[in-house]
């Protein structure tokens, strides 16, 4: 049996008082099976403060990583898992017995597991809104599902289109739309990505990585047109449990 007594875990990010992870793991650790474990937020204003955080908390055993540090934290790590290296983003850090920091990505796993039950044969291609660390995990999951995708950003670049190019033809060609941006999260719940929502149909999936609110304006707009909608809550649960397994293996 794994010795799970008196171990400290936490979440690395910026402006994370709303954090899903702290609430989830605190509730998990309230179970007497996990008694002795604790979970806290480490809210730092810039990634350079990470070194000091480690120095002041030598007993940490694992961290989750959220916006905006999923990519920025990588140079501070000693090693990456094969998939984290391929993805180029980390959302889970394990502190090894030798005192090394190893980065993993469980976002892709959570997204893949939560999307898979929704897929139908006509869901052939995906649009990924946003190009940050979270979008990289989504792209990797889509690769594993053999679903081609295109990134959307405010500025067109190589392999990235801008929002102005999205029209009826785009919606004909892309049946899965994934919001990986923070647009629409609480407290700015009336905001939504700049899309022509009238082109959503019952053949589309609208997936929002945001979980608060449970139904974002993006999801509401898509739902009105008959689209299948999904928020990021299940993804977060799946990725959190995967992180827990990594910390305990």
UniProtKB/TrEMBL annotation:
CDD domains: NAD_bind_Shikimate_DH. Pathway: Metabolic intermediate biosynthesis; chorismate biosynthesis; chorismate from D-erythrose 4-phosphate and phosphoenolpyruvate: step 4/7. InterPro entries: Aminoacid_DH-like_N_sf, NAD(P)-bd_dom_sf, Shikimate_DH-bd_N, Shikimate_DH_fam. It comes from the Bacteria. The keyword 4Fe-4S does not apply. Residues 11-93 form the Shikimate dehydrogenase substrate binding N-terminal domain. GO terms for cellular component: cytosol. GO terms for biological process: aromatic amino acid family biosynthetic process; chorismate biosynthetic process; shikimate metabolic process. Keywords: Amino-acid biosynthesis, Aromatic amino acid biosynthesis, Oxidoreductase. Pfam families: Shikimate_dh_N. One of its GO terms (molecular function) is NADP binding. This is Shikimate dehydrogenase.
